[in-house]
């Protein structure tokens, strides 16, 4: 029964929803700061291009995450009831949080398009981007709350919420940096992303702290023994060691730190690809071990 409640769609939903919210938070916060600094016209044009692309990707990822959530609910009628006959449940909170964040992303996307009839400037843009940041934080937190409230011993520690927030932020930074790298032919921002890379390393460091707290709490909880036994099996341990710790934390920290210390910009964003894979592995391990 638990496996049916937390299937593969939930894993994809939690990963994509968190990564999308992280990217929208990073882009909105960066946009807010960027407008308050002196920048040449060419850099401003490049940033607007990156901003529009990031809001597009963030919106699409959120939309797909919502499809996964609604698909996991089983039938269209139940999915519609979440919105039209809401009850005070975590699922309802998550559905509305995703929907509101998607609407804010769509609004920012529409306003960022060239020749768009919708314009957001000055205070109005500040307000919408601030709301987008708040909605993104709520969405990232929800991806952890969704598991924390599930009455499953392996997840029964508050650190899983903070862990998912910083894992989502880390994934979001990677999404933005990947978009920036793929558009570098039109964008001049590769050298301007050094502060973002520093933030990425900081997110990963905090993620290490709360992953350690979570694992320590699980080992101290005798009711989580079955989940830990599955985690210690060779196949799952390999995914946790190589995927979660290696690809999700150790390699990105190493590669980002090396890149930060170099004068030239990054040649290939390897750390961002593997960081996203590591974030997916984290959710796979926690959910799979929790429900068995």
TrEMBL record:
It comes from the Bacteria. It is a multi-pass membrane protein. It is found in: Cell membrane. One of its GO terms (cellular component) is plasma membrane. It holds the Pfam family NrfD. The chain crosses the membrane at residues 6-33, 54-73, 93-113, 125-148, 160-183, 195-216, 236-255. Keywords: Cell membrane, Membrane, Transmembrane, Transmembrane helix. The keyword Plastid does not apply. The keyword Metal-binding does not apply. Its main location: membrane. Belongs to the NrfD family. This is Polysulfide reductase. It comes from Gordonibacter urolithinfaciens.
């Amino acid at each position: 029964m638990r496996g049916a409640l937390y299937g593969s769609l939930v894993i994809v939903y939690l990963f994509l929803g968190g990564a999308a919210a992280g990217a929208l938070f990073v882009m909105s916060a960066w946009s807010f700061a960027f407008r308050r600094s002196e920048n040449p016209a060419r850099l401003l044009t490049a940033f607007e291009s990156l901003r529009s692309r990031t809001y597009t990707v963030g919106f699409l990822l959120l939309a797909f995450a919502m499809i996964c959530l609604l698909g996991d609910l089983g039938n269209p009628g139940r999915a519609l009831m979440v919105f039209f006959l809401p009850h005070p449940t975590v699922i309802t909170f998550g559905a509305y949080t995703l929907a509101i964040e998607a609407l804010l992303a769509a609004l920012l996307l529409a306003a960022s398009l060239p020749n768009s009839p919708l314009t957001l400037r000055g205070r109005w843009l500040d307000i919408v981007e601030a709301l987008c940041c708040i909605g993104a934080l709520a969405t990232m937190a929800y991806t952890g709350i969704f598991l924390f409230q599930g009455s499953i011993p392996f997840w029964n520690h508050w650190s899983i919420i903070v862990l998912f927030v910083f894992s989502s932020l880390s994934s979001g930074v990677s999404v933005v940096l990947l978009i920036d790298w793929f558009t570098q032919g039109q964008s001049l921002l590769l050298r301007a992303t050094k502060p973002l890379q520093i933030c990425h390393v900081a997110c990963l460091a905090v993620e290490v702290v709360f992953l350690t707290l979570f694992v320590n709490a699980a080992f101290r909880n005798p009711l989580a023994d079955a989940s830990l036994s599955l985690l210690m099996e060779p196949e799952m341990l390999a995914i946790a060691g190589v995927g979660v710790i290696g690809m999700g934390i150790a390699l990105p920290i190493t590669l980002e730190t090396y890149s930060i210390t170099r004068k030239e910009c990054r040649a290939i964003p390897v750390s961002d690809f593997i960081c996203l894979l590591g974030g997916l592995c984290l959710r796979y391990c926690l959910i799979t071990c929790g429900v068995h």
